[in-house]
Fold this sequence. Notes:
The protein is mainly α. The chain contains 6 helices and no strands. The chain has helices at 13-22, 26-32, 38-55, 59-75, 78-96, 106-119.
Amino acid sequence: MTAQPHEHHRRSPARIRAxxxxxxxxxxxxxxxxxxDLDAFDREYREALRRAGDELDLTPLHDCVESWxxxxxxxxxxxxxxxxxxQAEDLQRRAEGGEPVGxxxxxxxxxxxxxxxxxxxx
Length: 122
């Protein structure tokens, strides 16, 4: 990849996210990622390209780009991202310790979503 990683202190999180809304290309995504993610992005992107070519199916490539786009959006604000990860880890520890943490079980949320989509005729 030739795109250079962007430096988070040069652009605000809002500008980074706005640029990613306008351009979801692998080059734009890579440019928005923190430096520590570049090797993993390159490796996964190349693997998705290989699989897409081998399988004659672009799904692996689309899935890879979508996944990394989401990560770039989330990591545009390193402080907010670190806080989110910390909160998720805390909830996980509490749940594993048997403490009620609130929320809706995944199966219940999925069933409710499916029911809404069915009722809407989707």
